[in-house]
Specification:
single chain; alpha+beta; five-stranded mixed beta barrel; globular
Length: about 220
């Protein structure tokens, strides 16, 4: 663009018989060349930046939030219980990652510990001590394995519930759970979704939704 413009100007000057000094022409050419180099340099920097950003994005794991309604949460829950936190509340476990005989950094599993105060659905009894794992336990381990073994980051769908009532950390609240294994006697469970809990202010509403068959 700049080259053709400068040529056009030069031709127009010659056609009009305009007298230009060598110094003027030299300055004009220098300014044109300097501007061309300047914009070419800017373009190269932008192009390099774009390539770097695209490269980084390709390795960044992203989660796509999917909001879950209370109705969906209740439908998908095998156990709905009022709980209080046990002590200690959390325990961390290392899940070994071994591929072709080679050990990789383990997956760190977070275990949440509760004491059941009331069962609104399911077979859990008052006083039962339960341990709860992430809603995406298997998927989380798979994603971790891909990252440490193959250096591949994977996007996931994060199904998450937004409580309607206030959830006080040091007071009882309601959990929505599913069994971790096929054995009902197993004391380990998993959250139905991310943040699958509700404040006690919704207890009566949940019991109403569950109907007359709600457990006690």
């Amino acid at each position: 663009m700049f080259g053709s413009t400068s040529v056009s100007v030069s031709k127009q000057g010659e056609a009009n018989g305009t007298v230009r000094s060598d110094a003027f022409l030299s300055n004009a050419m220098s300014m044109t060349l300097s501007t061309h180099v300047k914009y070419r340099s800017i373009w190269q920097v932008l192009l390099a930046s774009a390539l770097i950003l695209n490269s980084e994005v390709g390795h960044v794991s992203q989660s796509r939030l999917v909001e879950v309604t209370l109705e969906q949460l209740i439908t998908e829950s095998k156990h709905i219980v009022v709980v209080e936190r046990d002590s200690p509340f959390t325990v961390t476990e290392d899940v070994p990652i071994v591929e072709a005989g080679k050990k990789y950094p383990p997956y760190q599993r977070m275990v949440y510990r509760y004491r059941v105060l009331e069962s609104l659905r399911g077979i859990l009894k008052k006083g039962a001590a339960i341990e709860v794992l992430s809603a995406n336990e298997r998927q989380d381990i798979h994603v971790h394995r891909l990252f440490v073994v193959e250096n591949v980051s994977k996007s996931i769908f994060d199904h998450r519930y937004r409580p309607r009532a206030t959830v006080a950390e040091n007071e009882p609240y309601i959990l929505f759970l599913n069994t971790l294994s096929e054995h009902e006697q197993d004391k380990r469970y998993r959250f139905v979704t991310g943040n699958s809990r509700e404040g006690m202010g919704m207890r009566d509403d949940i019991k109403r939704r569950l109907g007359a068959d709600a457990g006690t």
